[in-house]
Amino acid sequence: MAAQAAQLEKVRDSEERYQLATYKKMPIVAERGTGVWLYSSDGEKYLDLYGGHAVAGTGHSHPHVVAAIQAQAEKLLFYSNLVYSEARARAAEKLISVAPPELTKAFFCNSGTEANENAMRMARMATGRENVITFSGGFHGRTADAISATFLGRYRDLGKPNVPGHLEAEFGNIESVRALADKTVAAIMLEPIQSMAGVRMAGSEFYQALRQLCDERGIILIYDEVQTGVGRTGDWFFARSEAGSHVVPDIITLAKALGSGIPVGACLVTEEISANIKENDLGTTFGGGMIAMAAVSATIEAIETDGMLENVRAVETYLRHSLKEIPYIVSVRGRGFLLGLEFHDKAAPIHKALLDRKIITGTSSNPNVLRLLPPLCLKREEVDLLVEALHALTNEL
Ligand SMILES: Cc1ncc(COP(=O)(O)O)c(C=O)c1O
Predict the structure, then answer these.
(1) Phi/psi of residue 190, nearest 5 degrees
(2) 318 CB contacts (<8 Å, ≥6 apart)?
(3) Cα(167) to centroid of ligand 1, in Å?
(4) From the CA of 149, how far away is ligand 1's center (Å)?
(5) Sign of the CA dihedral 375, 194, 300, 311?
(6) In which band, very low, low, confident or very high, does the pLDDT at 397 lie, cut at 50, 70 and 90?
(7) Which of 61, 170, 222, 257 could staple 230 via S-S, CB 3.0–4.6 A?
(8) Is the per-residue pLDDT at 1 higher than 80?
């Protein structure tokens, strides 16, 4: 026990000595993972209902994804978009095959913020306009344009001086969008389910009204599906899903679970958008690299082969049903495996108490909401472990 504590302290001290602060860390030295389980270097086993910021969609170290990365690594680690690549051709074809049919072309980059920067740029190129409407509560990343589009807490101020041309509307309120959507507006961009804000969804009529408004006023609709994409909601994407009233945007942005842990982002766009893009308009050194592309193809294959979309839908129903037994949960928000548990009181003590019981969950910017973003392979037995732990907390809180 003393040796384990010493190991944690050693790694923590080293990380803190040689790196800048980022997030508040949990007292875990992560060593290996399999499916929904994360193992620490002291041999503890954690039920991971957060997936490292929603990245472990296929679960930790899915064998098919690992094998694909290993095989690619032995052939070629990287070459840029200056050459053709079978791995890239396959990944793009595979991704487009599961996308809404209106979205016919992909651009690969390395992260969510970069996907959003490029999406906004493409919208400006397509329309010749400059302004972008985003929503209070939305999070779009930390690079200059994306953080300027982020009207959530103190994030936008971290990016000062902000990029001009960003307008804030109220999520779920179409009149607030209508009032801003004049001829200067290139794009409306939204997280269709606002995750960091505490898993907020709008009414189905809101998504439809946005699509209609964009069509009427020549505005590009961008869905930031960095969290909702790649199976998280029980559909491949929120776009075109029943939950999203079958609305299809002009651009979808992706990252997080797309590479099962290998950094990769993407924009999926319509023919109309792609018609405006010429050589050298877009680019990035690492985007479309072979390892990332092997990970993308294998991620999609793993989700298909293991029936993960069906699993998300079935286990979501079970989870919602089981959570009804917990008296201190006010509501369960969200869709699929992007869920927010709303409590009467603060979520932080529950987050900590669950961690003490070796269950990892996520907080949000809503102090009363705990987020669950588990791997898409989460099973009923594992849900039972969460529900038992929440029951056990009933008398302690
Ligand atoms: C909805 C959404 N968009 C964009 C981003 C930024 O992605 P990245 O951290 O890969 O730049 C995030 C990250 O949390 C996100 O949740």
Answers:
(1) -150, 150
(2) 380, 383
(3) 19
(4) 12
(5) positive
(6) confident
(7) 257
(8) no
